[in-house]
Design goal:
Elements (H helix, E strand, L loop, with lengths): L6 E3 L6 E4 L2 H10 L7 E5 L4 E9 L6 E4 L3 E2 L7 E6 L5 H9 L6 E6 L12 H18 L6 E7 H7 L3 E10 L11 E5 L7 H8 L6 E4 L8 H13 L1
C-alpha cells in the first residue's frame, strides 16, 4: 500500500465512493502508477482533506473509498494579490509562484499603464492561470485554492472594494504585520512603470480601509518579481 507524494483535487469530497475526474484519474493511475488498495490524499481547495483508498484503478474514472473527512485547522487566508495585467506570460508566471503560498485570491487589474490589449478579455490567460493555481494547490499541499479573478478595471474594483490596501512602493515603509491587517487585505502591484499618478491618488484617498505603503527593497523591480517578494514579506 503506497501514498503518492501529491494531493489530488476533488471538488466534492464526501464519505463513501467517489469517482475522480479523468485528469485526476490519469494522474493517479498512469503518472503515479497507483493501484487498488493504494491511498490518495484528496483536497477540495475549500479547507477539506480526505485519505481515499483506490477501489478501482481506472485511468479515466478512478474510484476511491472515503471513510472520513478532515477539516483544515487554519482559516482561509485573508490576504489577496491585485496585480496589473502584464504582457506575454508574466501573469501565469506570477500565479504559478504566488498560488503556492497561503494567499486568498489573485485579481487581474486593468490599469492605465497595463500592457495587454484593451479589447482582450484575457480568457485564455485566466483559464491557464486557474489551471496553474490548481496545480499549485496540489503541489504545495495547502488547504485553500487560490481564486483567480478579473480582469477588471482598477477604478471599478477600487470603488467596490472594502478592506486594507498594501501598495508596493519604493518609498514605502516596512511590511505591516499580518495580524494587524483587516480582513480582507490586498497587495497592490502595478504594471511595468507603476500605477499612474491618478491611480496613486485614488489609492491614497481610499476610504474603505487602511492604506499601507510597503517598501520591497532599494532597487526597482519588475512587476512579476515585485509580486512574489511582496507576498513573501506579508504571508511567508
Amino acid at each position: 500500500m503506497k501514498t503518492p507524494d501529491s494531493r489530488f483535487y476533488c471538488p466534492l469530497i464526501s464519505v463513501g465512493t467517489i469517482t475522480l475526474d479523468e485528469n485526476e484519474s490519469s494522474h493517479a493511475v498512469r503518472v503515479c502508477r497507483a493501484g487498488v488498495g493504494d491511498i490518495l490524499q484528496l483536497s477540495d481547495g475549500l479547507g477539506h482533506y480526505a485519505d481515499a483508498v483506490i477501489t478501482k484503478a481506472d485511468a479515466k474514472a478512478c474510484e476511491v473509498q472515503v471513510d472520513s473527512i478532515i477539516e483544515a485547522t487554519n482559516p482561509r487566508p485573508k490576504v489577496s494579490l491585485g496585480i496589473a495585467c502584464l504582457k506575454d506570460d508574466a501573469l501565469e508566471e506570477v500565479v504559478f509562484h504566488a498560488a503556492q503560498t497561503e494567499i486568498d485570491s489573485i485579481v487581474f487589474l486593468r490599469t492605465d499603464y497595463s500592457q495587454e490589449p484593451k479589447n482582450s478579455d484575457l480568457h485564455k490567460t485566466v483559464r491557464r492561470a486557474e489551471l496553474k493555481s490548481l496545480v499549485s494547490l496540489k503541489q504545495s499541499k495547502k488547504p485553500w485554492l487560490t481564486r483567480i479573478e478579473g480582469p477588471v478595471e482598477f477604478s471599478e474594483w477600487l470603488k467596490s472594494y472594502k478592506g486594507d490596501l498594501i501598495l508596493c512602493d519604493i518609498d514605502g515603509k516596512d511590511a505591516p504585520a499580518l495580524e494587524t491587517l483587516a480582513t480582507p487585505a490586498t497587495l497592490l502591484v502595478g504594471p511595468e512603470g507603476g500605477f499612474s499618478p491618478k491611480e496613486i491618488e485614488a489609492i491614497q484617498n481610499f476610504k474603505g480601509g487602511a492604506v499601507h505603503a510597503m517598501k520591497l527593497g532599494n532597487t526597482r523591480l519588475r512587476a512579476r518579481t515585485a509580486a512574489i517578494i511582496a507576498i513573501g514579506k506579508i504571508v511567508c
